[in-house]
Amino acid sequence: NLALSDFIGPKDKKIQDYIGAFAVTAGIDMEKKSSEFKKNNDDYGSIMLSAICDRFAEAFAERLHERVRKEFWGYAEDEKLNSQDLISEQYQGIRPAPGYPACPDHSEKSSLFQLLDVEKNTEIKLTENFAMWPAASICGYYFSHPKSSYFGVGKLNKDQVSDYATRKQKSLKYVERWLQPNLNYDPKARG
């Protein structure tokens, strides 16, 4: 099975490698404008605003990833991809996000937010359930490894979850809550 750490050079090999993090939004003041549409009985305008803001946030994340590849880290300086290549992710590297299959623990967003001081720098906030506010916000990690790919963690056994909880310095119950869909056991069947 794969782990995201498989795509980072081992510390003992002294390989220069990077992992990055990002948080972007296109949703600032979206709720205010959406409320205006709803107040005027314009549900279509509200829905379209939400859809457009979501697309802008995704485009912002994609553009930032392109700049990481071509400028900031420069491992793909000569990359020349058309729109279809970008959509089908024909570039080197990935940008997985907490709460998605390769990193299913939504609570890891709090570490990312702390690392980047996201609230101060972007006005994006986390709810108590680790949803991002405003809507149309995206956060994640950058990996540049040539063989990096998206994958799903799959089902986790209790020993794996227990080890993760220990390394995360959280209770088993806390970690089980956030990894519930990935558990290969019933946490209520203690014993």
TrEMBL record:
One of its GO terms (molecular function) is methionine synthase activity. Keywords: Cobalt, Metal-binding. GO terms for biological process: homocysteine metabolic process; tetrahydrofolate metabolic process. PROSITE patterns: ADOMET_ACTIVATION. It comes from marine metagenome. This is AdoMet activation domain-containing protein. The keyword Plastid does not apply. Residues 1-188 form the AdoMet activation domain. GO terms for cellular component: cytosol. Pfam families: Met_synt_B12 (PF02965).
